[in-house]
Amino acid sequence: MADREDRGPVEEPEEISPLTLNRLSFYLRCLRQLQEERVKRISSQDLAGRFNLSATQIRKDLAQFGEFGIRGVGYDVDELADHLNQLLGLDRRHAMLIVGMGNLGSALAQYLGFNYGAFRVVAGVDRDPAKVGRSLGSFVVRPVDDLPAVVRESGAEIGVLAVPAEAAQENCDRLIKAGIKAVLNFAPIRLKGIPGVPLKNVDLRIYLEELAFFLR
Amino acid sequence: MADREDRGPVEEPEEISPLTLNRLSFYLRCLRQLQEERVKRISSQDLAGRFNLSATQIRKDLAQFGEFGIRGVGYDVDELADHLNQLLGLDRRHAMLIVGMGNLGSALAQYLGFNYGAFRVVAGVDRDPAKVGRSLGSFVVRPVDDLPAVVRESGAEIGVLAVPAEAAQENCDRLIKAGIKAVLNFAPIRLKGIPGVPLKNVDLRIYLEELAFFLR
Fold it and tell me: Is residue A212 part of a domain?
């Protein structure tokens, strides 16, 4: 459905940029909201209008991944949501392990968003003996020195870092060494990963910056 | 610097979309990294290459807000960072108040990212008498019933919701009634705001979904 002139530089589907990925995730979120409202079909124009997006961008992004939508009819909401789910790897379970069971780690373990749909927190470790042995949700906190065994036994794929900034790189390296497949870092420091193990640094300031824009 | 053909639909500067805002915030983050590395000048092509972005998109986004960059020379990194800072309203302080001082609220109050640069946590409230009176950073936790007085006395502009999902809408309404100017919601539920008070729902699953993509 995309106009050829609007596509800009041709991208390889394998080299998907972080911004495209962000947009696909955002589209999926919009589609889920439409599903809740029992909307069955939507045009790129209506989707754009409702969520304040660009229709051209939507068509361009989706055209990269196959033929979605019918000209003049629009997208089948359920079908497109299923495709995006699959494309984003959300059609199977992902087990997570949290390193650092302080305020942030405990909050993340309990956060509904982290125990919903494709994602489950299955293990937690801490270096503080006072925290080891505590029961949190479906797991008991274990010593950080047991990391290799915890990763193996729990089947955790994603390691979540909820440690202070100064301990983050060390624990990131330990996670990778223990065989974790991807790292999500909440420590306010940019970490270095290794090729083959995706690493995402979360910066919560981005949300504050968005709000600040509207407070000018 | 943008090619006229690549611009797509013309947008009003006032009606900036959430995705554009996201990108501007992302560009600013990239520029800060370049500043750390003492890079003085960068072309849109190099900026795009380094951070896996689209050069056309960068030029288009920035051209919306004035004349940045010189053809063939590129952007002055410091100048562009200053402009984006101003554009995003980050050239002045923003005081924040946290509602809910449990694990998440306490973690957010201590999170370096929330006490850095333009943003400061200046107050916290909770409905639990056991939490009221606790000292956290530069403030003492106060009862949620004192919200109007706390907003007035602290000068807080942004209210951060760190309460359970079922208490989020009620507390959002209280924040707005107490005179808060913007709301950042961490409860895993989509809240309804009112016109004139920007509301941002944070969904941490977006980060997991990005990682899941690379684990397919």
Answer: no
Contact criterion met (CB < 8 Å) for B111 and A96: no
Burial code (b: 16+ CB inside 10 Å, e: under 16) for B128-160 equals eeebbeeebeebebbbbeebeebbeebebbbbb
pLDDT at residue A137 in the model? 77
Q: What is the pLDDT of residues B202-211, one digit of tens each?
A: 888 888 888 8
Task: Kindly state whether residues B67 and B107 are assigned to the same domain.
Answer: no
Paired sense of beta strands B142-143 and B119-126, if any: parallel
Query: What is the domain count for chain A?
Result: 2
Q: Are residues B194 and B107 in the same domain?
A: yes
CA distance B40 to chain A (A): 21
Please identify among residues 46-65 of chain B the ones whose CB lies closer than 8 Å to any CB of chain A.
52-57
Secondary structure letter of residue A194 according to DSSP: B
102-131 in chain B: CB under 8 A from chain A: 102-104, 106-108, 110-114, 116-119
* pTM score of the predicted model: 0.78
Q: Determine the pLDDT at residue B3.
A: 33
Residues A98 and A201 in one domain: yes
DSSP B193: -
In chain B, the percentage of residues whose pLDDT exceeds 70 is 90
pLDDT in tens, B148-163: 999 999 999 999 999 9
Neighbours of A177 (CB within 10 A): 12
ipTM: 0.77
Q: Are B80 and B87 in contact (CB under 8 A)?
A: no
In angstroms, what separates the C-alpha of A66 from chain B's closest C-alpha? 17
Q: Which domain holds residue A100?
A: 94-205
Q: Identity (one letter) of the amino acid at B12? A: E
Residues of chain A with confidence (pLDDT) below 50: 1-13
Indicate if A59 and A113 belong to the same structural domain. Answer: no
Task: Please indicate whether, in this complex, the C-beta atoms of B29 and A206 are within 8 angstroms of each other.
Answer: yes
> Do the domain assignments include residue B161?
yes
Could you say which of B62, B87, B112 is where a domain stops? B87
- Separation in Å, CA A168 to CA A201, A202, B36, B56: 11, 13, 20, 35
How many residues are given for chain A? 216
